Amino acid sequence: MLRTGIRPLVVERDYEADVYPLDLSRRFQLVADEAKPWFSTYGGKITGCARFARKVADALGRRVGDAKRNGNHANGALGQVERESFPGMPEPVPSIDWCVRNEACCTLDDYLRRRTNISQWTSREGLGEDNEHLPEIKRLAKRLYPGQASKANRAVRDYVNRVEQTFDRLTGRQLQRNGTAKN
């Protein structure tokens, strides 16, 4: 869980609110309670955030490493993400199969919008300027719903409809029935 917002400052246990808050130290502190599955972070300054982030990452790495040695890691494949290419993407993305097995991905929308950045980095949320990526999206849906052709087809149809109703509508783009762009 990640919470952001106003950051709590680090003060001693016997602190009394008789000091102007801006005069308090901007040091940071990481508190790890072994009985709880999270860390608490306190204090810091924007200028020291990279150093603080490294400290948190190191602590997290130690904790995950301990869990891995004890056989308690969540997905059994830490650091071994299967990747595949997608048209228009500059680098391979996590495969849909890996995301289903390791990240509880269960919808086409979830994969394209959250498990990868396909919808953010390729035209029309992954469909392509003239639906040229639609065959690839259909292939992904078949892998997401193996042996369930109607469910895969419905997922693709729903995704295309959502893009047309939101993205295309906002950009003033309309599609003809044959799938070619019409502005």
Give the tags.
two-stranded antiparallel ribbon; disordered N terminus
Topology:
Blueprint: E1 28-32, E2 39-43, H1 49-69, E3 83-84, E4 93-94, H2 96-103, H3 108-115, H4 118-121, H5 134-144, H6 149-171, E5 174-175, E6 181-182
Antiparallel strand pairs: 1-2, 3-4, 5-6
Helix pairs in contact: 5-6
Q: Separation of termini?
A: 43 Å
Task: Please state the structural category.
Answer: mainly alpha
Overall geometry = elongated
Query: What ranges have pLDDT less than 50 throughout 5 or more consecutive residues?
Result: 1-5, 69-78
Topology pattern, helix = H, strand = E: EEHEEHHHHHEE
Strand order of the largest sheet: 1-2
Biggest β-sheet strands, sense, barrel: 2 strands, antiparallel
Q: What would the average pLDDT be, to the nearest integer?
A: 79
What do these coordinates show?
The protein has 183 residues and is mainly alpha-helical. It folds into two domains: 1-73, no CATH class; 83-182, no CATH class. The protein has six helices and six strands, in the order ββαββαααααββ. It has helices at 49-69, 96-103, 108-115, 118-121, 134-144, 149-171; strands at residues 28-32, 39-43, 83-84, 93-94, 174-175, 181-182. It has a two-stranded antiparallel sheet. It has a two-stranded antiparallel ribbon with strand order 3-4. Helix 5 (134-144) crosses helix 6. The radius of gyration is 23 Å and the shape is elongated. The two termini are 43 Å apart.
Compact description:
This protein is mainly α and 183 residues long.
